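[Q] Does anyone have a clean structure-token version of this?
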Amino acid sequence: MSNSRCIEKKPITKTELQINSNRPGRQIGIMGGTFNPVHIAHLVAAEQAMTKLRLDEVWFIPDNIPNLKKAPVNVTPKDRATMLDLATRDNPKFRVKLLELFRGGISYTIDTMRYLTEKAPQNNYYLIMGSDQVNSFHRWKDADELAKLVTLVGIRRPGYPQDPKYPMIWVDAPDIRLSSTAIRQAVATGTSIRYLVPDKVREYIEEKGLYLD
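[A] Here you go.
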């Protein structure tokens, strides 16, 4: 796959935000991932991107079988979807879309975005990515085509090396060094995850006995 020339955009200006908000159609942020489990860093990134880019909504799309990660262990897709719903239901601009779970098989973002842009071509989609995803995006399936279907948005993490191979809009967000892996490890070792995930998610994990193995 040939990579496009790296162009790192400066922080969004007020004029650019006005232009974005005046584009026809709805402005939709897309956050994909295993969300195993969803945690506060996911939610903060989505909120920062939504407010700074003036998005109408952010859609959380849990994958079925991830392409570049190991599949979740001992947690069902229904569990992950339920935790996402619990985490986002109090924000009217957050939506959980189960497109990839319903489609089955290995999840590729390009398949999802082809479907969405064909179904609602009037919308403008913004693919919101963490720093690690930014650096690996060029390895995603059909990355060149995907970069044309969406606006790429990177969540800037202070001190984290960023080497995007595609044009990127950067959004600064609080530096919350947290991962789903760390959450799972904490649960397995009996460490509290209070304030690391929404309370309803924590209660669901405890009720279902998730991540204890």
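[Q] Thanks! Anything notable?
[A] The mean pLDDT is 88.
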